[in-house]
Amino acid sequence: MSIANLVVECLVMPWQKTDPVLERVKFIAALLNEPNATFAELCARFGVSRMTGYRWKKRFENEGPSGLEDRPSVARRQPNATAVEVEDAIVEMRKRYSTWGPKKIRRRLSDTQPELGLPALSTIGAILRRRGMIAPRRRRVLVPPSTTGLSTPEHPNALWTADHKGDFKLEEGRCYPLTICDARSRYVLKCEALPSTRTQPSRLQFEHAFREFGLPDRIRSDNGTPFASTALGGLSRLSVWWVKLGIELERIRPGHPEENGAHERMHRTLKAEAVQTGINFAEQQRRFDEFRLYFNHIRPHEGIDMDVPAQRYETSWRPYPSVVSSPEYPGMKVRRVQSNGSMHWKGKLLRIGKIFAGEPVGLEEVDDARWLLHFGSVQLAGIDGRGDEITVVRDLEGFAPRTP
Known about the structure:
Number of helices: 11
CATH topology of the largest domain: Nucleotidyltransferase, domain 5
Largest sheet: 6 strands, mixed
Order of helices and strands: HHHHHHHEEEEHEHEHHEEEEEEE
């Protein structure tokens, strides 16, 4: 049977069809019986796109009149659809931890309810979006990696990071949270609500941390109070104490918080989960203590393959000493800084700084008239005696010690 005869048969058949099917039949009939009409004109007459017109033409040529009939829609029930109880568990976890995304939700559910049979991360994301629980993420500017040579910790306690989170108002005044973390495991060692950034309250919290967890190899901080100052070597009273404990110092560049990026990211979570303005200090500290428990033992962390920090952290093998000793300087000249912050050298009185009062400093010879001034592992300044005066030089360029 020719295509033309099929069209005629289709037109005279007593079909009980819907109007769209009849329109398709008329379209095919016009296509075959009006050779002078262009395909685009016929599509326009019947109100279809050319793509749709070509689809119906091809179906008719391949299947005859049956190709113009309506086809069953996709099954309403998808065989791979997520079970209702699984979707409910995902939504409940999101309600409990409102800042978690699919990765953390999936990891936590797999640990606590392994029998659920969880879907892919993309499916969990689709469920949360469908329920209105995820807002579109704003595009972020990527920060280039640091080129300052900051260390990469290879084990817990190789590097601790410390910072005072931005202050906020409480009933009794402003709160300056002090946070201390282990950089390798992301474990939050301390999160304390302090009324200021003064040295003594911060030192007390570091002492508590050292007694509980032992000493780290290094501590990374910014250049603010109480971690650094304008004294020689950028040291402060707090960091002088760290050096005496044998802790190496790292400071990020001013204006580059991304160099302490993991710590800053923790602060964003802390602000979202635990900061509450207007309450008292005791209540805020309770919220911080709950946050530490949550962050260390419940919240999966992408930076450690979705483990929780408590699974990766262990205390340091270096205990906090009962007596803190001053640094020693094998092979160097040693002078002790007086109570007014000065020291005697080559018959001159040099101003070193009161934060070193009572402490020994080491002088490493560069040449016959220049020396490199040390406090422990920190190079403080250069001592230049080439002119009529002996001067303290902060810029250490050219003060490399002579090679033995």
